[in-house]
Write a structure and sequence with these properties.
Elements (H helix, E strand, L loop, with lengths): L1 E2 L2 E15 L4 E11 L5 E5 L10 E5 L5 H17 L1 H4 L3 H7 L2
Antiparallel strand pairs: 1-2, 2-3, 4-5
Length: 99
């Protein structure tokens, strides 16, 4: 039952996952809670395709909606690693310049 923008009781079922390699053991757990829908997303990449020695982990809050969070989860790391600043070793500036 929906009450405004929140449910009358939380959805407490969790979707959890893990992944690991020789460097990392990573876990995540997602829960909808009181919201009408689960709009968040996350990314766990142990080895970036374009930079195998680098891992990428991110959480995307779905304030812009589930589609935007899902899109960011699938593509943001590609936009970052395509930036010239990234290839010069300036990850912070690459993050700032992604649009």
């Amino acid at each position: 039952r929906v009450m405004g923008q929140t449910l009358s009781e939380p959805v407490t079922e969790k979707q959890s996952s893990t992944c690991q390699d020789s460097r990392y053991l990573v876990g995540s757990s997602c829960m909808q809670g009181w919201r009408v829908s689960m709009d968040d997303s996350h990314t766990q990449i142990l080895s970036l395709p374009d930079d195998p020695g680098t891992a990428f982990f991110a959480v995307y809050d779905g304030h812009g909606g589930a589609n935007i969070a899902e899109y960011a989860g699938k593509h943001l790391h590609k936009f970052i690693t395509a930036r010239p600043e990234y290839h010069l070793g300036n990850v912070e500036e690459a993050l700032k310049q992604v649009n």
